[in-house]
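Progress against Task 2.4 (sequence-to-structure conversion) is shown through the following example record, which the project officer requested during the mid-term review.
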Amino acid sequence: MEELGDAADKFGRGEVRREDLPMIAAHALARGVDSPALGELAGLHRNDSDGAAELFRVALVEVGLLDPDAADWPGGSVEVLLRRVRHRAERLVAGAGCPACHGGAIAAGLVELHDFGEPWESVLGRRVWDFELPTIHWDERPDDRASLTREMRAAAAELLDALPCAAGFSD
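Structure tokens generated for the chain above:
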């Protein structure tokens, strides 16, 4: 299901084209994610994908990834970045997955948010180093990974308090 949410975010940022949505739906079905709209979307040919974006939206609602009242779907780049950074921070705090992988993705997302200017620049820009430095040190200091993990988890918890929730996607 995470891959489908990631594809939705990439679609919102323009990184996935409409004609790629049928294959994304087919892959989701193969992984066991099921909904009527996903099945219909997977059956579209990439050269006949005019209704693919709307079917994708319906499928996301059906599988519980998108709020049915999300008026601005697929959302702007800032909202997508917020969702992605928030998701990675939540996983880091929960201890799910590789801390350095999450830390690197959070740092990259914060750099992108910083590029949007205010209010992101002053609110989040200084937090980049809370994730970037431990990520850099992850491979250089394998004996310090436990303390680096604690640092990144604490920074992620503080970041979650500072980040607004992005509209649209369900948590």
